[in-house]
Predict the structure.
Amino acid sequence: MKRSFVFLGLAPFVLTGAVFGASVTRSFNPATYTPGQQVTVTLTVSATGAAAQAIEDHAPAGWTVSNASDSGNASGTRAAWFFLDGNNRTLTYQATPPSGQSGPKTFTGEGAFDGATSAIGGSSTISTAGGASARVTRSFNPTSYTPGQPVTVTLAVTPGGAAAQAIEDHSPAGWTVASASDGGNASGTRVAWFFLDGNNRSLTYQATPPAGESGAKTFSGEGAFDGSTEAIGGSSTISLMTGPPPCTTATKLCLDNNRFTLTLDFKAAGGQQGAAQVAKERDGVLPAGTPNSGAFWFFDAGNWEMLVKVLNGCGLNNNYWVFFAATTNVEFKLTVTDTQTNSTKQYTNPLNNAALPVQDINAFATCP
């Protein structure tokens, strides 16, 4: 196979084809900045088995970066890393705003995985600190978009004691907004709210990209609190989903790029029964886990009952493996389906029986 090389300012990058699902997300600690004081920037890298990965992030103009972890290069406003492996990792660096800096500032960056490049997601805008200052932060679910499919936009509002608050957000050109919560007005690309109180709240709306949309797109908006206006912080840029479309729901777990679907039904001694719920991350994103593993709960979202994973053992015994461990004596039935072949495997536990761990290395003879 002929290989080509792209130079990303770090090292030659071997192109072996797109890696579906690879991503980088950014977060700040603290979530706001104080001029002259360092902010820790964390980049969470999901490499999804890429053979090579290059990460590059840029602080706002006038800021300085330093202390890049994992032998990264930090110079001026730029921090960069290059790795010849497919490991997931958490990278950090320090970004320091200059004296006198004010207002919201934006970070930009990208990750390249075997030649497939996408913008860094997560938080991109950081605002000045100010004690109990009013602010609005934006987040997306899912964190990337599929043309024609709605994205849930959440605006977390902290009015800082203001007596009145007005919130306005704008989706990218050509998108449509709808279903604004809390009596908000959604029309065209604009959604807006007005409240005569100082309550914290979480506002949501749906933003739908048009068919054929591509590339990274930017949202913009602002919050006004007792007449003082500030740009909405948090995530502002959302990129086109490069992997398979979302599959996991509240009661269905999808693993291995949506090839395998898992559902779990239960019945308790008191008669309570139903479909187990897929465990979520703390920010509400489905599912909690990794591309090949997840968890379910029965009665309480904070009490996970089963950890399950589907592993590719094709190189070892020409089978996909199903492993799970359930810390329960509740009756249950776990159903695993290979959507590529429509073959199904079920695992059960009787009521009042302490469930034993299962390591089925011959679950699906459906390789590759």
About this structure: The first strand starts at residue 5 and ends at 7. The longest helix spans residues 314-317.
